[in-house]
Amino acid sequence: LSFQVDVIDCNCPVVQLNALNQSNSICEDASPFALSELESTNISSGTFTIQSENGNNLNINNGQIDPSDLGAGQFDIIYTLTEIPEEDCPAADTLQFSIVAAPNSGIPIEALLLCQNEASIINLFDLLENADQGGNWQETSFNGSQGSAFNAEAGTLNTNNLNPANYTFEYWFD
């Protein structure tokens, strides 16, 4: 009696991609990044493709993704092994990620003119058009407002007891 025993390599090649970050999302104005940064340790040889949410393949320039070139939306980064692996081994890995639109600081409307001793609390957001919430306020006046007249956290200016001057403010995002 004779029979054959075949020993096969049951170790699948490494094809797993690392996450971009905890949320797998990046801002549209983020710096370009190399796709190789997503490769896990000991990843097997392969190629990257990027697909938009409608399934179209997108260009990869020198192994990098520039979020501003892609624009806001949902995308897949697909890493496909160069050599077809054994049966029951994955041949590719897909990382789904989002590019979120960069926040908008808005456009200033006309300057506001007030008379001295005209007490009011001005919401600085009301002086901007199309501004997204969540940014940072900073007073940039040559001679700043006194005391707690400017509230950066709330984006307000209390005009009570302000000296006559030009008060300027900046609204920006990190």
Radius of gyration of CA atoms, rounded to a whole number? 28 Å
Q: Average pLDDT value?
A: 90
Bin the helical content.
under 10%
The first-to-last residue Cα distance is: 77 Å
The number of strands is 14
Shape: rod-shaped
Stretches where pLDDT is under 50 for at least 5 consecutive residues are none
Approximate strand percentage:
25-35%
Number of helices: 1
Structural class: mainly beta
Biggest β-sheet, characterized? 5 strands, mixed
Spatial order of strands in the largest sheet: 1-7-6-3-4
Elements, N to C (H/E) = EEEEEHEEEEEEEEE
What attributes does this structure have?
174 residues, mainly beta, 5-stranded mixed sheet, 1 helix, 2% helix, 31% strand, rod-shaped
Molecular structure report:
- By secondary structure, the protein is mainly β.
- The protein contains one helix and 14 strands; from the N terminus they run E-E-E-E-E-H-E-E-E-E-E-E-E-E-E.
- It has one helix at 67-70; strands at 25-27, 33-34, 46-52, 57-58, 64-65, 73-81, 92-100, 107-108, 121-123, 128-129, 136-139, 150-151, 156-158, 169-172.
- The longest helix is centred in the middle third of the chain and has 4 residues, at 67-70.
- It is rod-shaped, with a radius of gyration of 28 Å.
- The model has no long low-confidence stretch (mean pLDDT 90).
Topology:
Blueprint: E1 25-27, E2 33-34, E3 46-52, E4 57-58, E5 64-65, H1 67-70, E6 73-81, E7 92-100, E8 107-108, E9 121-123, E10 128-129, E11 136-139, E12 150-151, E13 156-158, E14 169-172
Parallel strand pairs: 1-7
Antiparallel strand pairs: 2-5, 3-4, 3-6, 6-7, 8-10, 9-13, 11-14, 12-13
